[in-house]
Amino acid sequence: PVAVITGNLNICVGETLNLNANSAPGYTYQWTGPNGYSSTSQNVVIPNANTIHSGTYTLIITFGGCSSTPVSKNVNVAIGTSANAGADASTCGVNPYALAGATATGYTSLLWTSSGTGNFTNSTALNPSYIPSLADVTAGSVILTLTPSSGSSCTAVPDAMVLTIQKAPTVNAGTDGTICQGNPFTVTTANAQNATLLW
């Protein structure tokens, strides 16, 4: 007999590994694989495969006391990527905001993107700083998204956080004035924006 293996040799963690052997009446099967895997079923079926199932699977079929030459296939179970952009936060004006608390798994590269028009100090770093633009300040907030990549076909799971941007306070105490001793002075030209006041 001649052994033949077909199936999905490249899968992602959590998917089902299926390796199929050719079938004929009277065949018996012997599979061996990574981490001591052994089976006498015709087909290998491993639900929710993970990285411990990566490696070489070998099949020998027997018929009438005669065994086939061992046939092997290498299986790669790749890790998907995920990210956590961190908690929502707030900043003031166009001051740089240092992102902190972002995490990612299974990645070989990262990319931060913004729904606004500001800039990252390094958009491929895990925790860069974001510098809001004037348009971002006017909008009042931006969504910052962290996307991981592993270079595999496994699904990349991005994550986003909202950065609320407060407008910087501006105050003007008004013009100088002159009064006679003992008389009150009324401030009439003071103004303020985006601020609470204390004289």
- In N-to-C order, the SSE pattern is EEEEEEEEEEEEEEEEHEEEEE
Rg, nearest Å: 32 Å
What is the rounded distance between the termini? 96 Å
Main sheet makeup: 6 strands, mixed
Total E-strand runs: 21
* Overall spatial form: rod-shaped
SS summary, helix count: 1
Overall average residue pLDDT: 93
Structural class assignment: mainly beta
Strand content: over 45%
Describe it.
With 199 residues, this protein is mainly β. The protein is built from 1 helix and 21 strands. The strands form 6 sheets. Strands 2, 4, 5, 7, 8 and 9 form a 6-stranded mixed beta sheet that branches. The longest helix has 6 residues. The chain is rod-shaped. The termini are far apart. 21% of the residues are buried. The model has no long low-confidence stretch (mean pLDDT 93).
How are the SSEs placed, and which strands pair?
Layout: E1 5-7, E2 10-12, E3 17-21, E4 28-33, E5 37-39, E6 44-46, E7 55-63, E8 66-67, E9 71-78, E10 81-84, E11 89-92, E12 97-98, E13 103-105, E14 109-114, E15 119-120, E16 129-131, H1 134-139, E17 141-149, E18 156-157, E19 159-166, E20 170-172, E21 191-193
Parallel strand pairs: 2-9, 10-18, 11-19
Antiparallel strand pairs: 1-3, 3-6, 4-5, 4-7, 7-8, 7-9, 10-13, 12-16, 14-17, 15-16, 17-19, 20-21
